[in-house]
Amino acid sequence: MSLMTDKQTLDDLNIFGKRGGDSIYSIFNRTSTRGGALLLEEMFRDPLSRMDAINQRSGVIRFFSVNQFRFPYDVEWFDAVEQYLQNTDERSKLSETDNTIGRKFNNLIAADTGFKQIRKGVASLIQILQATARLVADLGEKAAGSGYEEELSILKKILAREELQAALQENQVQKMSFQKVADHDKQLRFRQRDLMQKLLTHIYAMDVFLSVAKVAMERNYAFPMARKKEDQVVVLKDFYHPALQKPVTNSLTISPDSNIIFLTGANMAGKSTFMKSMGVAMFLAHMGFPVPASAMEFSVRDGIFTTINLPDNLAMGASHFYAEVLRIKSVAAELSRDKYLFVIFDELFRGTNVKDAYEATVAITSAIARRKNCMFVVSTHIIEAGDKLKGICENINFVYLPTLMDGSKPVYTHKLTQGITSDRHGMVIIRNEGILDILTKKKGREGIAI
Asked: What is the mean pLDDT of the chain?
């Protein structure tokens, strides 16, 4: 079963990005093959929601991070094989009658392109088979008791098929006669085509696991441990956003007694980045991928939904406030299904006046506090809402990102602190930028400000 999410969440967390260059996907995409890159994208679009499946995949990636080796294939083989296997036209099947003097003459003058493509496809597929056999033999003992043992067993069964033994024992791959090419083609492209497609799928998966394992090793990411959903726990240690060059790390625990994180802080204190960091960690963890943290345990969720960078809906003629209302209504519909969800609301109701925003933030937060099977992260700069909620909800963990003053200059620590902030530095920033001075200057006769 897959994790529920939506486009708004994928956009908020920058999973794919507008151009892909700075996306979470691009961080992990070190794949060697196009098939591997496509499979990696599928994994990002279809995260897991079963504890055993998540821990299984995490174990496989951990195996590859410990047993590092080079992807043992020539990338060009896969391009040739993909094109070769797509040609299922029976009329292209080679036969003895095709091996005529005329064909040999055409081959001599480089005109027999059909046969050459088939020969290239056959040779490339045989080389992939033989490279896989060497890899399976090399990993045999290393994979014992690891997460990759089951995957390796499947590869062994494929390679053990009697129909593939001639290809595996072929020692003249680049100099095969017409008859040998025809025999291998008949077996590989027609009789065993589905099996060959299955083999490629497992190799592309290996490509993905190697890619992700390499990122985990280079960046020192942690492998999270999935727990059953009923535990209602998230333990994140020293986590940060993967796009930051010099991140400040934070640690946080969500428990059944405090399943709502209520985050306050001044503008520019880092609330949105903090929430994105949590969202990305939870998303990657549900893929079975390593996360930017020193350690992580989490109860699996049925879905993840975020509201961080919500755009105005101009096509509907909707204001930002109404877009917020519609988004919260959509998430509320998911919550009403009694699923185990992880939800992020960043700066609730920023599109309306302070009084309405205060009342709505208190009303919505106190309502979701009754959903004990879900986890929430709610941020606001309206600190009065936090003060009100303290007296009516017992399952809220109040935290904030402080702002220190260096003279008249705000300094943002980005370090999580318990409690509710009292920081208000908006006017300080406006004065520091000299905006009021610019606006109050008068122009002289020559149009020069004085």
From this structure: 89
